Structures are given as structure tokens and as C-alpha cells.
Amino acid sequence: MMTVQAVTREQAARRATVASVVGTTIEWYDFFLYGTAAALVFPQLFFPGQSAFAGVLAAFGTQFVGFVARPVGAAIFGHYGDRIGRKTTLMVTLFLMAFGTVLIGFLPTFQAIGVAAPILLTLLRIIQGIGVGGEWGGSVLLSMEWGHQQRRGFSASWPQIGVPLGLVLSTGVVRITSGITGTEGFASFGWRIPFIISILLIGVGLFVRMRVIESPEFEAIRKSNKVIRNPLIEVIKRQPKEILLSALVRMSEQAPFYLFITFVITYAVKHLQLNSNSILDDTLIAAALGLVSVPLFGRLSDRFGRRRVYGVGIVLTALFAFPYFALLDTREPFIVGVAIVVSLILHDIQYGPQAALIAESFDADIRYTGAGLGYQLASVVAGGPAPLIAAALLAQYGNSTAIALYIIACCAVAMLALIFLPKAGHRFPATAATKTEATV
Fold this sequence. Notes:
Blueprint: E1 6-8, H1 9-40, H2 42-46, H3 52-83, H4 86-105, H5 110-113, H6 116-146, H7 152-160, H8 162-190, H9 192-196, H10 198-210, H11 216-223, H12 231-238, H13 240-248, H14 251-271, H15 276-304, H16 306-329, H17 333-359, H18 367-383, H19 385-397, H20 401-420, H21 430-434, E2 437-439
Antiparallel strand pairs: 1-2
């Protein structure tokens, strides 16, 4: 029998934050795992018989399908998140993501079942995309809506560290597995292990999320009978500008990020002939630093303003585009490591305040749908196409100049979107911030 007890707002906020971080970590572990495998082994396992370039494009193309599915997940789970609550919806997204990931680990390769293998891989990638698409909005809102009114940037940044944590876990597990099995063993069977052990993570995630209390702002909406019947249609009618600009403002963060963590493996290993394990180690260090830098920049956005901190990140990312590839092209392990670490710190300057920046743009009754949809649409215009575009530019020109210009163009678009994104000032009811107790 469940014990009924009163908990303070601070205790409930801590539970919400922990649950958000744990859940997003698991989700991003699963999602990033595919990107690493797509760069290392999927071209030969699921797309054999093609040129090396065609195999890489096919693997990244399947990865892109997962990005396209993310707005679909945001629309589906945003609908239920704004109607039945953040907590219940997040339980479903966590299970869905783990389901797709574990099945990839058991998937037969092209050699075993032919063309059915890449088709099934694509379907499972779609499931992954739908799961992670519905996850972000709920995790961020659960943490932010429980947080203090004056520290929403800091509160919303905690679920964001699920990205570096997921990256650390996925890269670390791949690195350890490949080290144990060797290059041939990893390509043969070792790649499956990181996918299959995802089943262990879901148990932890579900246990933590079962102890969470529903967001006070959603409870206030539900008690006042102001729940929107169709949040997707309502947010498109009421705040279409915010949806579009939320997607575009991520161009400077999302597109470069997937170049920095996914395409860099292909660029370094295939083009520069560097050791893949060395690149994975550098990524691991950079991601670990994100555990500090993401909440740090979220906190700085509370003090200096979301737009100011985010704008600094955009400018620095643009300025680093050419130096980034120049450092990689030295082929010196230490200098290459510096390039990878700096690139992800510049990403974190934007990623820390980004959750609050986007979520604060939407009204509470349609926030899960609106923020999730805007955030995940960036996957289609930025994150998903980025490795494909970079691979095509590298094949066309044989150097990184065009890729650096692409990064700068993404930053220019993001800066314009940031300028025109409406300022938030009335999105959060005072009643939510004054609630002091909750019951579980």
C-alpha cells in the first residue's frame, strides 16, 4: 500500500529535477548511440556493396529519419502532456525509446536478411525519434515549472545535461566495448552490446519517474478547468511565430553540434586517417565538461538574460568555424582534442539557457506542445541534415572550407531568429510559484 505523505516544494523540485536528468540521459544515450554506430560500423553492416562515401551517406540518411520523426513525437506527446500531464507522458516516452534501442541491438544485418535489414533499422530509428521527440518538452517543463521563478534558466538547464551525460555514457560504453572486443570483434558483434544494455537503464528511469509529483503549473490549469482540448491546433493558431523562431534559433546550436560529435568521427577517421578511439576519448572529455558548463550557462542566463548569453554563444560558434577545422587538420592528437573540447563548450553556452528561452515563449496551457514542437523542428532543418550536408560538401570540395561556411550561415540564421523571438513576460502564473506543499 502506498504511503501518503506531505513533501515540501523543495523536495518535490529535487525529485522532478533528478527524474528529468535521469530520463533525458537515458533517452540521449539511446539516440547518440545510433550516431556513433552510424559513423563506425553501420555503413558496412547495413549498407554494403556501395562506395565508402555512399555507405556513409546511407547510414547518416537513416540517422536523419530519426530526426524527422522527432517533431512527430513532440506533436503526439505534447498533446497528451498538455492534456493529462507531464509525468504520465514521460513514462511512455522513456519506454518507447528503450524499446527501439534494444531491438536495434538484436537486428540481423544485411548479410543475414538482405534489404530487410536497413528497412527494419529505419523503422526502429523512427521509433527512437518519436520517443526522444516527446521527451524533451516534458522533462524541461517538469523541472522548470517546479523551479524558482527567478532561476528558471538554471532549473531548465538540468534536463539539458542529459545530453552530455548521454553522450558520455554512449561514447564511453562504445569505447570500452571496442577496446575489449577489438576492431574486428566490435564490427562483428561488439556493437550490439551498447544497444542491448539499454534495457537495464529503463528500469532505473521508470523507478525514478514514478516518484515524481506532477508539475504545479499543470495542476493549476487542470483544477481551473482550463486544459486545452486540442493543444496542437491551438498552439499553431495562437503562437505560430514562436514555433518557427524556436526552431530557427537552434540552427547555430543543433547543426554544429552534430558535426562536432558525429560527423567529426567520419572526418577525422576517413579524411584525416586518425584513430577513432582517440576521437571518442576527446569527445568523452568534452561531454564530461558539459556536466558543469550546461548548468553554469543556464545560471548565467538568469543573471545576465537568456538572449545575451545565447547571443554570445552564436557569435563565438561562428568565429570558431574556420579555426575548428584548422585545428583538426593539424592531425596532432592534443590539438585535435582541444578543438573538440572547445567546440562543445561553445555549444553549451547556447544549450544551457536554450530550454528556458524556448519554453518561456509559450503559454502554460500549450507549453508542452509548443515548446516541444519548436525545439524538435530544428531536428529537421538543422541536426538531421547537418552530417549529410557536411559529408556531401567534403566529397564535393575535398576540404573543410565549405563546411565552415555552412556553420557560419547557420549562426546567421539563428541570430536573426533570436532577434525576432518575442520576449516572455506573462507566461507563468504566480500561483504556481507560491505553492509550498504537494502530496504523494
